[in-house]
Amino acid sequence: MAHSDDKHNLCTYGWECLSTDFPYVYHMFRVRQDQVRWPDGHTSPYAYLQASGAVWIVPVTVDRQVVLIHQLRYTIADWCWEVPAGGSHDFTGTPLELAKRELAEEIGGTSDNWLYVGSFRPGVSIIDQVCHIILARDVRLDREPQREPGEIIEVHLVSVERALEMARNGEMVDGTSALALLRCEPYLQSRESLPLPPDHSPVAMARTVVRAERGPRTVVRAEQGLVEGQR
Fold first, then answer.
1. Rounded alpha-carbon distances, angstroms, from residue 220 to 96, 199, 224
2. In angstroms, rounded to a whole number, what is the distance separating the alpha carbons of residues 141 and 126?
3. Average pLDDT by consecutive 10-residue portion of the chain (231 residues)?
4. Domains located in the chain, CATH noted
5. I need a surface site. Which of 7, 18, 68, 101 has the fewest CB within 10 A?
């Protein structure tokens, strides 16, 4: 999260932060409210969310199946197509370490073939978060997922073409997941093996966080069949 004295560069453009308050603090984010003098000279509050970083993982199996999750989301009271993801609010480590944890926790997946694809900002007018995209190739679904209480997740294996179609046609309404898939498209279309990121990559340098808790059930669906396990 950014500090309250981080706006000095805006003075060049006529902005001035006069004071900062945090009226609401939650373990995953906080609301920051600045009293701001705007470029036209008037003064008024400016509020937005501050949050730690997060990762979005695009998992692909050795036979080129993308592992998607179908998750029941309380915020929209509906099911949502997504890729595995997680925030850095309570675990110190790199985005790659966070990606490995989230892959194991949400889908029971492991991989030895990772690529840091890049980062993005999810909503620059209301949140200062930085989100990382990491591609996991040759994913194996060889573990029991360790989900958080309340997470109701189905795991679906779909073709690369189908996953990209869902990201493009609006079927995947979670914009961050759709963007992660589309940013990975050049690598998804390639059958070549991808290298591990070097120590000096953004994955190795950036610090991040994750929680590991156990969830209630595992559901795995493939395009041609269904396997369901109850825990």
1. 24, 34, 12
2. 36
3. 67 92 95 96 96 96 96 96 92 91 95 96 95 97 87 95 97 98 91 45 38 33 34 30
4. 8-51 (no CATH), 54-223 (3.90.79.10)
5. 18
